[in-house]
Amino acid sequence: MRIGAFLGSFDPIHNDHLRVISDVLNNKKMNRLLIVPAFHNPWKKHNPAPFELRCMMIAEAIHPFIEMGALLYPIESQLQKNGNPVYSYMTLNAIRKAYFPDDEFFIVCGEDTADVINKWAKYDEFIAPYWKTLVVDRPDGTCSSTEVRNRFKNKQDISMMVPECVNKIIIENSLYVE
Fold first, then answer.
1. Following CA atoms 144, 166, 71, 116 in sequence, which dihedral angle do they give, to the nearest 10 degrees?
2. SS3 of 33, please?
C-alpha cells in the first residue's frame, strides 16, 4: 500500500491544501493520504489556533476526499509531552510503525520543503531510509495560511481561499482576530 503523509500547521487549511490532497489522491496513486497537523511547530513565530479547532477545520474540509483515502491523522497530540517539541522524524516514525513494514511511504511536500528536508532532525537515521519525497507543484498565486489569517484579521473576504465549512469554524470560534 502507498501511504502519503501531508504534514503542516494547517492554520487554517485552505483551498490550495485541498488541491494538493485531490491531486495526490487522483494522480499520484496513493492508497491513503494522512493529513498530519503539527501540534505546535517549533519554527513558527505565531501561536497557532488551538489544535482541536485546526483538526475540526481539517476534518470538515477533507470530508469530500475521505472515500478517496484522505484521513485526518492527529498523531502529534499523542506524541506531545511536557511542552517538548515534536519533530517530524518522531511523527513519521510513529506513522510508519502504525502500518505494515512493506508499505511504501511518501512525504508530500512542496519544492521549498523538498530543498531542505535533508536538514530535518535525524533525517539520515529515521526519515531517508523509510520515506520517499513526493514533491507537488505549487502554482504561482497560491495562497498561504498566513495570507488567510491576515486577510481575516483585516476583515477582508476569505471565501475564495477556504471552504465554507472552514470559514464558519473561524467565525464561530473568533479565530485570527488578534
1. 10
2. strand
